[in-house]
Design goal:
- By secondary structure, this protein is mainly alpha-helical.
- It contains 10 helices and no strands.
- Helix 8 packs across helix 10.
- The protein is elongated, with a radius of gyration of 20 Å.
- It starts with 7 loop residues before the first helix and ends in a 12-residue tail after the last helix.
Length: 193
């Protein structure tokens, strides 16, 4: 894979000006490629980072670099590669970003890869910071909603602050399904007086 053609002129201008890419610069590049949904470009940038191909010495990717690449790969339907990078983050003692975990959960759901989805869910839930980030928790819950429906026991793997939010998500989905199964005419699971 090659870097996204839309980024080449800007990248060439930076390099021509004498810029030496560092972790922050590579992370910005990989993040831009992830936002563009360019999994191949994100991997090319990650490979260039590791090899020092753009200029200078090889630069070791950090959890942020890998998280951006996980997002890009998951969005591009390259779930197995995204899982490999997610595992690399965990193996290095890093913390995958909530966005990476949510994108990977969504990719697992689309592929029907429930075992992988459960593994990602448990890893992401166990790494949530105490007190949690409400927006990050919401993304994780939204991405993993089908997993929670299929495996209700997953709720017990959440940090205490997220359990109530997850129960609300599941309850609202159950209410919606009951309403729809009743044809939307009030003939669902509610009893009539």
């Amino acid at each position: 894979a090659d870097l996204n053609p839309r980024l080449r002129p800007d990248l060439a201008a930076l390099l021509a000006a004498g810029a030496t890419p560092n972790t922050v610069a590579y992370n910005a590049l990989i993040s831009a490629l992830a936002r563009a949904g360019d999994g191949g470009g994100a991997m090319a940038a990650l490979d260039a980072m590791r090899a020092g191909a753009l200029r200078g010495e090889p630069t070791a990717p950090d959890a942020r670099s890998l998280s951006h690449a996980v997002r890009a790969l998951a969005a591009a339907g390259r779930r197995d590669e995204a899982l490999t990078l997610f595992d690399q983050i965990l193996a290095s003692g890093g913390r995958p970003s909530p966005g990476a975990a949510a994108a990977l959960l969504a990719a697992c759901e689309r592929a029907g890869a429930w075992a992988d989805g459960v593994r990602v869910w448990k890893a992401a839930a166990s790494l949530a910071p105490p007190g949690g980030d409400a927006a990050a928790s919401s993304r994780l819950l939204a991405a993993g909603r089908s997993l929670v429906y299929a495996f209700p026991g997953l709720l017990t793997s959440l940090p205490p602050g997220m359990v109530r939010a997850a129960q609300t998500v599941v309850a609202s989905g159950a209410a919606a399904r009951a309403f729809l199964s009743g044809g939307g005419s009030g003939g669902g699971s509610d009893s009539e007086g």
